[in-house]
Design brief:
Number of domains: 1
Oligomer: single chain
Order of helices and strands: HEHEHEHEHHHHEHHHH
Strand order of the largest sheet: 2-3-1-4-5
Helix content: 40-55%
Number of helices: 12
Distance between the termini: 52 Å
CATH superfamily: P-loop containing nucleotide triphosphate hydrolases
Strand content: 5-15%
Length: 282
């Protein structure tokens, strides 16, 4: 561990000790709060909400860590064992965030009493639009940045975000295949599933669901209204590097008839599975 990492770890654990002293009557072995997200689906928004629990319980005041199945700069896919090692590194009262595949061994760990897990996802059509902006304009170190910049226009980049790059050395399948490893999170009763759109369009109801999922495991002495206020006040879009507009349905401004066709061919069933459409007549 280098000096910077050691200092960060020392500060983190010192803050956790102080949090424990703030709430001496509450259990010291509270489960890990784990925010699982599909990329470009509100990761930072969910992180901020979960960190709001630190104002009413002895949770850490910052994320313990973030895990992703792919390395951002190289695009290299991590081994399944790395995800399990990361999950095992988390301790009571940590708050952590991950783009985490629902592999059987990971599901077994996450759906145990050690965790209170949440899974956020978004209309995949908005995901592919957000992905274009992120890779092209926001993150120059991204593995696909140079390729996206080499394409002639937004339409061409959007096609790649929908269809992937099947011939590239870096693994990047189409949007349905990218989502497939996450689908089993939808079938776990221990995991609260959250539509990103609900946090934008009906935030009060969404925050109540997030709170109820927590309280089902650990009742808190703080009045419900104050807990909800803490979760709401923790939201700060300006601190999210990928939160561009806070609007939903942006795909309608960017999809051409051709984009619609190739999306339906590649991922029409996914939209139905996630509840965004009833059929392919959109």
């Amino acid at each position: 561990m280098n000096l910077k990492s050691l200092l960060r770890s020392t500060v983190y654990h010192s803050e956790k000790i102080l949090q424990r002293l703030r709430f001496p009557s509450q259990p010291a072995d509270l489960p890990v709060l784990l925010g699982i997200s599909f990329p470009k689906s509100g990761t930072h928004l969910l992180d901020q909400i979960l960190l709001g629990f630190s104002n009413v319980a002895p949770y850490a005041r910052r994320l313990h860590s973030f895990y992703a199945e792919y390395e951002g700069e190289t695009g290299r896919k991590r081994a399944p064992e790395q995800a399990l090692t990361w999950l095992d590194s988390l301790r009571p009262r940590d708050i952590a965030s991950a783009h985490l595949f629902a592999r059987p061994a990971a599901v077994e760990r996450v759906c145990s009493p050690r965790f209170i897990p949440y899974f956020i996802f978004r209309d995949p059509r908005d995901v592919v639009v957000s992905h274009v902006f992120y890779v092209t304009d926001i993150e120059p170190r991204h593995a696909h940045h140079a390729y996206y910049k080499s394409l002639p226009d937004f339409d061409a980049r959007l096609k790649v975000s929908i269809l992937g790059r099947p011939d590239a050395d870096i693994e990047f399948p189409n949007i349905a295949e990218r989502f497939a490893p996450y689908l089993d999170w939808l079938d776990q009763p221990e995991v609260l599933t959250i539509h990103f759109e609900d946090l934008i369009q009906d935030r009060v109801r969404a925050l109540n669901r997030i709170l109820d999922h927590f309280l089902a495991r650990f009742p808190l002495p703080t009045p419900r209204s104050l807990i909800l206020e803490s979760l709401e006040s923790s939201i700060n879009p300006s601190k999210s590097p990928t939160f561009r507009s806070g609007r939903t349905g942006e795909w309608t401004k960017h999809f051409t008839a051709e984009h619609k066709k190739i999306f339906k061919d590649a991922a029409g069933d996914l939209l139905i599975r996630l509840g965004y459409e009833k059929d392919n007549n959109w």
